[in-house]
Amino acid sequence: MSNFTATREKDYSAWYNEIVTKAGMAENSAVRGCMVIKPDGYAIWEKMQRVLDDKFKETGHVNAYFPMFIPKSFFSKEASHVDGFAKECAVVTHYRLKNDPNGKGVIVDETAKLEEELIVRPTSETIIWHTYKGWIQSYRDLPLLINQWANVVRWEMRTRLFLRTTEFLWQEGHTAHATEKEAIEETEKMLDVYADFVRDYMAIPVIKGIKTHNERFAGAVETYCIEALMQDGKALQAGTSHFLGQNFAKAFDVKFTNKEGKLEHVWATSWGVSTRLMGALIMSHSDDNGLVLPPKLAPTQVVIVPIYKNDEELAKISTIANEIVKELKTQGISVKFDNRDTYKPGWKFAEYELKGVPVRIAIGPRDADNGTVELARRDTKEKKSVAREGIATYVNNLLNEIQQSLYDIALERQTRLTSEANTWEEFEQLINEKGGFVAAHWDGTTLTADKIKDLTKATIRCIPLDSAKTQGKCILTGAPSEQKVLFAKAY
RNA sequence: CGGGGUGUAGCGUAGCCCGGUAUCGCGCCACGUUUGGGACGUGGAGGCCGUCAGUUCGAAUCUGGCCACCCCGACCA
Prior knowledge:
By secondary structure, the protein is an alpha+beta fold.
């Protein structure tokens, strides 16, 4: 079976680390907190990028690229923005090295000090709004709908592969609008794009909501988010979409002349998802034997493993395998025929299980004679003999079935792990023993949210968009509350 | 950044208390036999024991500094 040592039950985080490294997704690098995304991991990220990029284009956005360095002074222009990011910024102070006159190696050349330090972007609002000032004069220049794929750096205390790394890859959309209404619509639209993507491609259900005041993006008027639940009952913020109001337009003096000839500040949004989604993907579906990938994001959806004793048999099986490859490819299925003679079938089975390939086809001499193949699905480990005739259609249906099944299981888990608490005792017990989302009344104050966090480690993940307003009393203070919010322990 | 733990071959480890340059498994290489769930045999290669300094005739082992990683806190996508 697998050579896994960790299990989800015994040590969830050890299990996660082991999956990431053993399945060849990523590894720690020579730079603290920064990871190397390996080819098998990067291939998944590329698939995500492609799908998301298409969705952005479909909704009218275009890509551009802004510098990774931001003049320090830009940061202080929006007060809450600098407050939010100041503690985690990498700063470039010099631009030259020289040989160490006292010995070996190189040292920073102190004479090459920058006039103004550069900040390695933790996000690009400031440089982008500085630039937009030059691009926007009239309502005719609006809306401006731009996305960029980039790396950003946030100097985190504690890092975990994909979930929180010092440098990470993401996309950040930055849009400018003539009206508040249009900007809010954009914010909500992009949240839906994210939610749909995560549901339809990653097979993960999410809760759409808005963040409370203190969980809001630094500089945003409102932060919308999608929250997903992992197998261990902890929540993961999977994406955010911010309505920035006129905060950045004011900070960077971006005005436009409206149809009435009056000068107004523009309305802004920004939205992003990152390589953190890789962590969500891995944690949502995988099991104690390794990675489980939803077919829509699996770089290789089907692998064919030949079983043979001699060249003659291999030749015969290869002919069949190559035909199947061709048939699957015409259906748009990505398939790999692993005819390496350097590994045995059993080894390959275990390897592809570890790597999460959704469907495996094994073809041996008996299959060649009987006109069958052995089909195994990664998610359920189910194996069955299937007629070689019509295999492409069969596999296509199976891939869809797996995709759906992964989602169904994740949805069932989310439903099972979502509870309501009406008393503090109930709340504590649910958070500590059951985990997952707990809906409860909250008095709306940061003080109470902080106290609840101190007592239980649970935070308010969001105020769900679709929940009805109900009168009640705050779970902790008993003060009146108009709506239940979702609590959970989070990543 | 605080508390705890770990660092020995590509990976996982024994040795450390009681100083004498290193154990075992997997992997790797060669040859042969094998191939329907991580094959077996025989032979072989690979380690200045995280790093720097100190103690000592002699350090993986003792002492100190540093670095990295893991776990728990504070912070966060």
